[in-house]
Amino acid sequence: MDLPQKGGEPRSGMPDAIGVERHFYSYENEDGTHDTWVEQTLSRVESSAEEPYRKLLRAEIPRGAERVAFAGFLATMYFRTRPARRMAAEMQSRFLQLRTFMTANHLGAFDTFIRKFEAEENKTLSTEERAALKAGMLDPSGYEMLMPKHRTLDIFENAKLITPLIHDMTWTIAEPANGFLITSDQPVCRVVLTGSVRRQEFGFKDKDVEVSFPLSPKRLLLMSWKKELPNIFIAGRDFINHRNALRAQHAEGEIYSHIKHLQTERLVARYKMHRLDMAGGTMPGQKLMPVRVPRRWHWDKPKD
After folding, report:
1. Do residues 137 and 103 lie in contact, with contact meaning Cβ atoms separated by under 8 Å?
2. H helical segments located in 107-148
3. pLDDT-derived band at 252, boundaries 50, 70, 90
4. Which parts of the chain fold into alpha helices (H)?
5. Are strands 291-292 and 145-146 parallel, antiparallel or unpaired?
């Protein structure tokens, strides 16, 4: 399997060894043990999705309990990835920084904060220390926020909300007339296809939303709110190229292809600096500190 990597050179690897990271879905407790409840849950979700996955590869749209199981699989797949969890950390970070910024920006709130801080720490801050603290709260861009991994796993709760939406969408399978499909470390893509018209979007409920998931190099599952679509249709080159480009744009760090191909390498080069990002969530003039989720969390001193 060919593995083009965003920001790096393409490389080959065996499928079983690609995209593997030990304890990616677990986190360390204070006593050094690993909490693996997410891994256990995902294992059950994957097992229930096996049979409907086989049916989809045969261009059979699952129904009943199998459709529910695969909708749940896609929902957890949407949130289990590195970009989704990074954005979950950024969302929590922005909320915390917004509160800090608003506190420092309001004289009464800042004075109340100082009084509580001095009482808890049993010390009195000097005028210079207060000024430095306020400056850091207003502009924390020179610092870095470390977010514990377990805080990013809370995002899985959202899978319960979008599972029924994915289930109720119209499912259809696109088969390339020419070429093939790629995938990435963010395989479930949600996009709103509105042409050049800019408007407010409504997530999975948006009437123009399209959710896609590559089943294989020759099968792409599409879900939308369009009605009366065929179970399978033959997709032209432009259609497949566009969906491959979307996959490359949504990738965090890795793009996967079953063969070495120049067009795939061009996609990697084109979108190597692109990644999904949070929109909004700040006040005018507010500066943000970067947020990072360490792979390992040492309770006495966090580090990678």
Report:
1. yes
2. 107-121, 127-138
3. confident
4. 37-57, 64-79, 82-105, 107-121, 127-138, 149-152, 159-168, 237-250, 262-270
5. parallel
Q: What pLDDT score was predicted for residue 302?
A: 47
| 5 DSSP assignment | B
Would you say residue 211 has pLDDT above 90?
yes
pLDDT of residue 237: 94
Query: Residue 198 has which token pair?
Result: 């800019």
pLDDT, tens digit (0-9, with 9 covering 90-100), for 166-193 = 999 999 999 999 999 999 999 999 999 8
Other CB atoms within 10 A of residue 159 CB: 21
- At 132-164, the pLDDT tens digits run 999 999 999 999 998 888 788 888 888 999 999
Residue 45 to residue 47: CA distance in whole angstroms: 6
- The rounded distance, in Å, linking the Cα atoms of 257 and 3 is 6
Dihedral of alpha carbons 227, 233, 238, 243, sign = positive
Q: Which amino acid is at 142?
A: G
Q: Are 291 and 144 in contact (CB under 8 A)?
A: yes
Q: Is 284 exposed, middle or buried (0-12, 13-18, 19+ CB in 10 A)?
A: exposed
Q: State the amino acid at position 195 in one-letter form.
A: G
Least Cα distance to 185 among 65, 18, 298 occurs for 18
| Cα–Cα–Cα angle for 253, 49, 236, rounded to 5 degrees | 60
**Residue type for 161, please?**
L
